[in-house]
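Final report, section 2: Outcomes. Of the targets proposed, acetolactate synthase is the one most frequently requested by collaborating groups, and we therefore present its record in full.
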Amino acid sequence: MLRLAFREMHNGRPGPVHVELPAPILYETGDPRTAPVWPPTSYRVGPPQPSDRQLDEAAALLAAARRPVVIAGQGVDRADARGGLLDIAALLGCPAIGSMAGRACVPADHPNYVFGFGPAGDLARSEADVLLVAGSRMGNLDVPYDSYWGDPAGKRLIQIDIDPRHFGVTRPLHLGILADARVALDGIAARLRASDLGPATAPTWPATAGSTSRFGCNLLPRYSNGRARASTLHTRPV
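The predicted structure is given below as tokens.
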């Protein structure tokens, strides 16, 4: 029973497991040798792995995109997958946004950083033609199925997650990859790097879009056109 609990705790999206035992069992005595402890590898399986076909398709979609955007959820942080995600953003020359729970995944001083909950982040997500979302359930403040974020038919969504329950909940998927975020993102980055397709694939972002990054500063004037003046002031120093 406890082996099953520990396996479930590490299966898919890691989390706590509740084990309830009757009081008589808790108060019983016994010989520990009758219940040997097994090493984790003898009863647990590793995280799901992406297929080569999925990684090839994801890399091709991103390489062909005109306005790609990468979005990091908390799963990127848990999987220690920040390096792969930021490599993809750098190779594509596109905005990198952290979700509400994944804000720490994209450093504020990174050249591709765009603050996800201001005018620049809203515009980047609404005008993107390909969205790569990793480790995020895409909640109400991320990329929900809403006309505010643009017509879903005009966007291709690539979602990477370790929990199958999170796929296609708020938006229709073009490609879903059930896998460890680090393995998937590193694999996509390696394919973009090997094909040498990355830097030339998103020529429209710099023209319309470089907060602290080149993207945020150039996106804001477009957002504020006809509206109140926008500011790049971050709330942290206030």
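The longest strand covers residues 156-161.
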